[in-house]
C-alpha cells in the first residue's frame, strides 16, 4: 500500500451521486458495452438505494476519489423462506482489479449480508467475464449448477 494514501470502503452517501454516476456509466457502457440509461434513471436508482430498504450501495474511495462500487438488492427466497441479497454489481476501476481492495469491497458486501441475517448472497456475471469468475472462485464462491438464468426484455 502506498504511504499517505487513504483507502475507504463505506456506504454510498448523497454527496457521492456525481462520482457514483460516473462509475456506473463506466460499468454499464464502457465495461459491459450496454447502452447507457438516461441519467435521471441512474440518479433515481441511486436515490432509491439511499433509503436502504430495497438495497444498499457501498463505495471504494482512494484519497477522496470513488474508484469502485458494489450494489446489493434485497429480496426473498421461497426455497429458503427467508430474505436474501443479490449482489447486482461489483465494479472497480481497472487499476484496482485483482487487488486486496477489490477483495475487501466484496467482503464488505458478504459481511453485511451475514451481519444482517440474510440467508445468502447471490450474483451473476457475464459468461465472458472470465476474470470475475476467477476472482469469485478465489473468494470461495460456489458456482451455481441447479438453475438456469433467463431474462426478458
Automatic annotation (TrEMBL):
Domain N-acetyltransferase as annotated: residue spans: 7-153
A GO term, aspect molecular function: N-acetyltransferase activity
Keyword Acyltransferase found: yes
Pfam families for this protein: Acetyltransf_1
Claim: Transferase is one of the keywords in the record: yes
Keyword terms: Acyltransferase, Transferase
Domain of life, per lineage: Bacteria
Alphabetized Gene3D superfamilies for the sequence: 3.40.630.30
Name of protein: GCN5 family acetyltransferase
Source organism: Paenibacillus tyrfis
